[in-house]
UniProtKB/TrEMBL annotation:
Residues 1-20, 479-507 are annotated as: Disordered. The keyword Protein biosynthesis does not apply. Residues 326-395 form the 4Fe-4S ferredoxin-type domain. It comes from the Bacteria. Keywords: 4Fe-4S, Electron transport, Iron, Iron-sulfur, Metal-binding, Repeat, Transport. Residues 86-310 form the LUD domain. Pfam families: Fer4_8, LUD_dom. InterPro entries: 4Fe4S_Fe-S-bd, FTHF_cligase-like_sf, Helical_ferredxn, LUD_dom, LutB/LldF, NagB/RpiA_transferase-like. This is Lactate utilization protein B. The keyword Iron applies.
Length: 507
């Protein structure tokens, strides 16, 4: 990506990336999260429900696969011509009365947004649900400068009032059930009382009462954007509740944070994504609310309109031909709803703003695979391929996971970068030695045959119950969590050779 065209470096920022770095590596975090039986039950129920709705509405479209292909092709076009499209968007947005800001990383984006809010004199803002603002940890930054941000999306409000973290791209409070939500509302919203039930209708009404005054009195709103149209400078937000429409139309000042990859070339291109996104995300044929705004319209809506174009590692992802299609993501969350790993571990285990399969490829690319906490994310997958099957823009997530695993291994075995031993390779780990030994054995039929003679020893270790319950060293990571089936009585090679002998002897 051209530095001069974008006004930002084509490298990953080392510091100030917000909520992209996990605090705990995935294996340890997942192990802890899996002890929460209620969370796992909540997520299983919600994801299976959404999965079923999605399948039903997708089956209605005879051209669904063609739509997926079109969505993928459009994203490839955007990635190939991103600098020019960004400049076109800036020109069109500015020509229509808006102001464009460029942010290299989360720290710069937060400084820009905080300054814009302070310029209005307001100490309160209302927010539309936004992955980009969560990514840069905007709410905490604003709070540090005396500015209170109120989430208006119901699920985000639940997370905010519960002093919690989002665990799903589309349904941030998916790990909570309605009884837990009632308890949060009773504790955190003073206008509610014990008569509040856990019926979804009552909970939604309580949230409306809580938010109504905020909508009418807060002069500044902050949103994300699902799409930005380069041709016209138009921004688009799609949502299901109407809270977004209120935020986008009532305040005097509107500040939008948009990742630089969210562009589409022309207004006509929205047709494809406005069919793909609702079906893949909520299992709806269309979004109940699709809001679009193009700059400033005198006397109608916000009169002070800004957009912050956020890089925060995206240009580094774009520079990797094998991994850049992660930027095609339209944040539908379909991959989370079919992932067996996410279903068991939950979204918090991933650490980053982006959980599930897409987070496992996007976060480590944005921070760099050498970021220790994120280097385990590409292994948070069985490579079953379900995510690829449902992705509306055909991101081959399993292929990118394998690519990132390769990058991780190469990074681990790179020569030391400093010190007296910088030219020496790293000391091999136990896993390195084991894999090297397996490679030597399996690359030779003779050596493999000799190794197969040890199968009886494995059966003896398994005992009568035919399961190996303990292995030493790094292999113990397997038997710590599950039993290893006993090896077969003989190898396929020996069985086949015996079968051939029997046939030759006419048996």
């Amino acid at each position: 990506m051209s530095r001069t065209a974008l006004g930002m470096p084509a490298v990953r920022p080392v510091h100030g990336q917000g909520n992209l770095h996990a605090e705990t590596p995935f294996p340890a975090a997942a192990k802890a999260e899996m002890t929460n039986a209620q969370m796992r039950a909540n997520i299983r129920h919600a994801t299976h429900t959404i999965r079923g709705k999605r399948a039903s509405v997708v089956e209605e479209l005879p051209d669904w696969q063609e739509l997926r292909t079109a969505g993928s092709a459009l994203k490839q076009r955007v990635m190939a011509d991103l600098p020019a499209l960004l400049e076109q968007f800036e020109e069109q947005f500015t020509a229509r009365g808006g102001t464009v800001h460029w942010a290299r990383d989360a720290a710069e984006a937060n400084r820009i947004i905080t300054g814009l809010v302070q310029d209005t004199g307001s100490q309160e803002v209302i927010k539309v649900k936004s992955m980009a603002t969560a990514e840069i940890d905007l709410e905490e930054h604003l709070a540090g400068h005396g500015i209170t941000a109120t989430e208006t999306d119901l699920a985000e409000l639940i997370v905010q009032l519960g002093h919690d973290r989002s665990s799903h791209i589309l349904v941030p409070a998916i790990h909570r059930n309605r009884h837990e939500i009632r308890d949060i509302f009773l504790q955190e919203m003073p206008e509610t009382d014990e008569s509040l039930t856990s019926d979804p209708r009552d909970l939604a009404e309580a949230a409306r009462v809580h938010l109504r005054e905020k909508f009418l009195s807060t002069p500044v709103a902050i949103s994300g954007a699902n799409f930005g149209v380069a041709e016209t400078g138009t921004l688009t937000v799609v949502e299901s509740e109407g809270n977004g429409r209120m935020c986008l139309t009532l305040p005097q000042t509107l500040i939008t944070v948009m990742g630089i990859e969210k562009l589409v070339p022309t207004f006509e291109d929205l047709e494809v994504y406005l069919q793909l996104l609702p079906r893949s995300s909520t299992g709806e044929r269309m979004n109940p609310y699709t809001s679009m705004w193009t700059g400033v319209t005198p006397g109608d809506g916000p009169q002070d309109v800004h957009v912050v174009l956020l890089d925060n590692g995206r240009s580094a992802v774009l520079s990797d031909p094998q991994g850049r299609s992660a930027l095609h993501c339209i944040r539908c969350s379909a991959c989370l709803n079919v992932c067996p790993v996410y279903e068991q571990a939950g979204g918090h285990a991933y650490g980053s703003t982006y959980p599930g399969p897409i987070g496992a490829i996007l976060s480590p690319q944005m921070t760099g695979i050498t970021a220790a906490e994120n280097s385990s994310l590409p292994y948070a997958s069985t490579l079953c391929g379900a995510c690829y099957d449902v992705c509306p823009v055909k991101i081959n997530i399993p292929e990118i996971l394998v690519h990132l695993r390769d990058e991780d291994v190469r990074a681990q075995h790179a020569p030391r970068a400093e010190g007296l031993f910088r030219r020496m390779p790293r000391v091999p780990s136990e896993m390195d030695v084991m894999m090297k030994g397996a490679s030597m054995v399996m690359s030779s039929g003779r050596r493999m045959g000799l190794a197969e003679r040890a199968l009886p020893l494995g059966r003896a270790a398994a005992g009568r119950d035919q399961a190996i319950r303990w292995l030493p060293g790094v292999a113990g990571g397997w038997t710590d969590e599950r039993d290893l089936p006993a090896p077969p009585r003989e190898s396929f090679r020996n069985w086949w050779a015996g079968r051939q002998r029997d046939q030759e002897e006419g048996r």
